[in-house]
Amino acid sequence: MSWDFETDPEYQEKLDWADTFVRNEVEPLDLVWEHQQFVPLDGLRRKAIDPLKEQVRQQGLWATHLGPELGGQGYGQLKLALLNEILGRSSWAPIVFGCQAPDTGNAEIIAHYGTPEQKARYLQPLLDGEMFSSYSMTEPQGGADPAQFRTRAVKDGNDWVINGWKYFSSNARTAAFLIVMVVTDPDVPVHKGTSMFLVPTDTPGVEIVRNVGLYGEPMNDGTHALIHYNNVRVPHEALLGAEGQAFAAAQTRLGGGRIHHAMRTIGLAQKAVDMMCERVLSRETAGSRLADKQTVQGYIADSYAQLAQFRLFVLNTAWKIDKYNDYKKVRKDIATAKIVMPTVLHDIAWRAMQVHGALGVTNEMPFFRMIHGAAVMGLADGPTEVHKTTVAKQVLRDYEPTDGMWPTEWIPQKQEAARAKLADYLELEVGNQ
């Protein structure tokens, strides 16, 4: 078995192009049209951004998270990881490259479980970058715990009627449709009685009560909706996948979404390292450069080590996904990446902020946004604490308890076994003395 840490030259050329393109053409969008990534394009924004999307398509880098049969390139998760490291530098980059969350995960669900009619109506516009979507799962009273779900859908003739509340449905205010996860059979275990529906946002009864913002954003002007589903009637054809099979579909979405977040976080953390290194080489205090201070050198070394380890782990996880083509088989590694990701971004961004002094804590530098983003990543797609439980259970499956009084590595017991195994040699050794 061979090991190789190099990317093939042809794809590396594409990565080099993407790096230059993102820095020169895409990052300026973050400064001019901040927080407008998920606002449908019109007017001048369309004139500016559509040509950028076309350049990405010409490079064969559009929607790389999907296979050729779905309008992607079929590069696989490992190559997507290398590209996402670059895209993570910019909020607009995933939009320009056709691989933005939550639309990537939603597209995967529809691709795997949607009917031909559903794919034509919802998937193709997502792939074309002409439509946004929202994943409506979390509920106010129970967070992401499905056992606490109260939103219900009941049959009424050939229709389904949905009632309940959903919280933190990201991008709902600009989405064309929602994927709603609801209980359809409360008399069976929740993982067997939950279903998904495709619901256009203009359906009567879809009431966005508040657009919750993150810290620092204006009240009720955010992108994470509190939604009241008030007698929302949809036809049976709105059912996404089989009735009662929402959990299987959700893992298709969530597994990919979690590792894609980790991929992009690498690029964002690297950006913080870049800013930190530039700063410490540029500033002097107490008679020498910041770069010559041992504490600052510790910041740089710790940041490099954290990021290098995290990057290699994420790349290895992406390689396993490509190898097995089954998110379930890589569940432990995906959950581990999800656990590590917020800490890596938080720690590196905090150090970078610190070496920038007073400037670092202002809104003229991006560090607090990164730190806040790390906190969000610790909750998005499941809290870190839940993923730690998942990892622990997965790790323990490979072990057995000891039957005896002492641990298997108890030295006196092992010494006795070793002496018994080598008894003939020990007798010869004694006889020769």
Automatic annotation (TrEMBL):
Gene3D superfamilies: Acyl-CoA dehydrogenase/oxidase, N-terminal domain (1.10.540.10), Butyryl-CoA Dehydrogenase, subunit A, domain 2 (2.40.110.10), Butyryl-CoA Dehydrogenase, subunit A, domain 3 (1.20.140.10). It comes from the Bacteria. One of its GO terms (molecular function) is acyl-CoA dehydrogenase activity. The keyword Flavoprotein applies. Keywords: FAD, Flavoprotein, Oxidoreductase. It catalyses: a 2,3-saturated acyl-CoA + A = a 2,3-dehydroacyl-CoA + AH2. GO terms for cellular component: cytoplasm. Residues 247-396 form the Acyl-CoA dehydrogenase/oxidase C-terminal domain. InterPro entries: Acyl-CoA_dehydrogenase, Acyl-CoA_Oxase/DH_mid-dom, Acyl-CoA_Oxase/DH_mid-dom_sf, AcylCo_DH-like_C, AcylCo_DH/oxidase_C, AcylCoA_DH/ox_N, AcylCoA_DH/ox_N_sf, AcylCoA_DH/oxidase_NM_dom_sf. The keyword Oxidoreductase applies. Residues 10-130 form the Acyl-CoA dehydrogenase/oxidase N-terminal domain. Pfam families: Acyl-CoA_dh_1, Acyl-CoA_dh_M, Acyl-CoA_dh_N. Its cofactor is FAD. Its EC number is 1.3.8.3, 1.3.99.-. Residues 135-215 form the Acyl-CoA oxidase/dehydrogenase middle domain. One of its GO terms (biological process) is fatty acid beta-oxidation using acyl-CoA dehydrogenase. Belongs to the acyl-CoA dehydrogenase family. Homodimer. This is Acyl-CoA dehydrogenase. It comes from Rhodococcus coprophilus.
